[in-house]
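User: Some background: our group keeps a shared notebook of sequences we're curious about, and every so often someone picks one and asks for a predicted structure to add to the entry. Today it's my turn. The entry only has the sequence so far, pasted here. Could you supply the structure so I can complete it?
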Amino acid sequence: MGKRILIVGYFGFDNVGDETILQVECERLRQLRSDLELSVLMDNQARARELALTSYKRKSIYQIYQAIKAADLVLEGGGGLFQDSTGPGSVMYYGSILAAATMLQKPSFLLSHGFGPIRTDLGKLLAKSLLPLASKATFRDAESLEEFKKFAPQVEAQVTADPVFLLKPGDSQKSQDVLSKCCLADASAPVVVISVRSWLGLSIEKQAKAYNDWWESLEVGNRPQFVIVPLQYWYDEGISKRLGSLLKAPSVVAPKLSGEEILALVAAPQVEMTVAMRLHALILTACAGKAMLGVAYDPKVANTCELCGAPYLHLKELDEENFAQKLTDAWEHRNDLALQIRRQVEMLRAKADTAFTMAMEML
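Assistant: Of course. Here's the predicted structure to add to the notebook entry:
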């Protein structure tokens, strides 16, 4: 019988970033050791079957106990699991998994986390009590490691990279198939991919005006069309359609796409650049070696852009004139940006793989 790994994260909720993380984790772990038996805490049974995972209900104390008891390693991550922006529930839940693993004498490993922010008094108390129980930890950026060390300085930890950096584009036919699903007005015209999400203080009207001002400043024959891609479809679809309705350029809202399909889309020759708020829209673009501009509503977006050598602007800087200038600069230098991003991604892929090597050493 092979070794057993229990994977724990924000899985089964139809978020492209998290679902792509889970897919990459399963693929890479099985590549490194073919006899592994993988399980997951997830209520989405169809998704678990798709990835050939044994699933346990994530809110059943009994099933969580059974899952941890059966495992040789509890692997938490990736993604931003330890944060209390929406309340202390996440810190309590994922920290409790570490506590249960400790009680059952099972090693636990935090894989390529994006850590924080933890701002509430209760969140900080839980973090200080529970995070030191992790056996080892890796983080997707230096800022996350620094924040983690404030709560668990004794845990062996290092910086790696987001697991999704391990993905590589498929063949060109898949790119064309995804483009066809998007029903573009002109299949040969250049494309800019956009990823947007709702956020407190975000004015979609200001974003639309900046896109329009930039687009109208271009020569007619050099104007791109837009494909707006919702990454958490049920959450992003409405604001994506609102943005599309305000744009003067030809634009479409993409249908629901998987992480691999989004990678195929941004890898298509017609796609020149991505402008994104969603973290994994940027990471998938980087994997395709294309130019990108980040809109940093959260430090993780700025951190990832810096790692990739890509430009970004903070949400608080997002007035029409500033955003339009950033779009102009990124568009004019898109070929140089793409080259720089490709160089950085090769290093990030190696760092991402380090986390999986460490996980294997714990079995």
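Suggested note for the entry: DSSP finds 14 helices and 13 strands in the chain. The first strand starts at residue 4 and ends at 8.
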